[in-house]
Design brief:
141 residues; 18% strand
Length: 141
């Protein structure tokens, strides 16, 4: 248990969140039951800016095949979410929900060389935050 949070007021906080614009259809709830909310780049910058005075939001971008793999996963999640417009899956226990999700996924995902998924193929871009798989905020007091 942490009794106190100690930080250097001249330091930089790094915060990240999935990019709502990349993952969800308009008005759609996050498909991860543990995400209370997901943000667009503008929403994330505004939220972080309520606490920090200097905020820079970048998009976390990935080269192929990571980008297309994540996009396909998000596309499948959006389709599954459309099958459940009332959000009933959020009320199912995880012991029922997980096998149900697995059963609805494609039977054979495409084979991808795992060696192609490396950190040197992931970048951040301040000018394309809205295009990122995730959003990364650099925040200073």
């Amino acid at each position: 248990m942490v009794d106190a949070l100690v930080f250097d007021p001249s330091g930089t906080a790094l915060l990240t969140t999935p990019n709502r614009a990349y993952r969800l259809c308009e008005g759609q709830r996050p498909w991860n039951r543990y995400h209370a909310r997901e943000y667009s780049a503008a929403e994330f910058e505004q939220l972080v800016g309520t606490i920090f005075s200097d905020v820079t939001v970048c998009g976390v971008l990935a080269a192929e095949p990571t980008d297309s793999t994540v996009w396909a996963r998000a596309d499948r999640a959006r389709k599954l979410a459309r099958l459940d417009p009332f959000g009933l899956r959020y009320w199912l226990p995880e012991s029922v929900n997980a096998p149900l999700r697995c059963g609805l996924r494609r039977a054979a995902p495409p084979q991808v060389d795992r060696a192609e998924f490396t950190l040197d193929r992931v970048t951040r871009d301040e000018t394309a935050a809205e295009d990122g798989l995730d959003l990364l905020a650099f925040a200073r007091p």
